[in-house]
Amino acid sequence: MIANMIEIHAKATPFDAGVFVASCDKGLPANLMAMGRINIPSIVVTGGVMDAGPDLLTLEQLGAISARYERGEISREELEFAKHNACPSCGACSFMGTASTMQVTAEALGLMLPGTALLPATSSDLREFAREAGRQSVWLSEHNLCPRDIVTKESFENLIMVHGAISGSTNSLLHIPAIAREFGIEMSADDFDRLHRGAHYLLNVRPAGEWPAQFFYYAGGVPRIMEEIKSMLHLDVMTVTGKTLGENLEDLKNNGYYEKCGRYLEKWNLKREDIIRPFDQAFGTDGSIAILHGNLAPEGAVVKHTVVPHEMFQATLKARPFDCEEDAIHAVLTHEVKPGDAVIIRYEGPKGSGMPEMFYTTVAIASDPELGASIALITDGRFSGASKGPAIGHVSPEAAVGGPIALIEEGDLIRINIPERSLSIVGIAGKEMEPAEVDAVLAERRAAWKPKANRYTSGTLKFFTEHAVSAIQGGYME
Question: 0.70 cut: is pTM over it?
Answer without folding.
Answer: yes
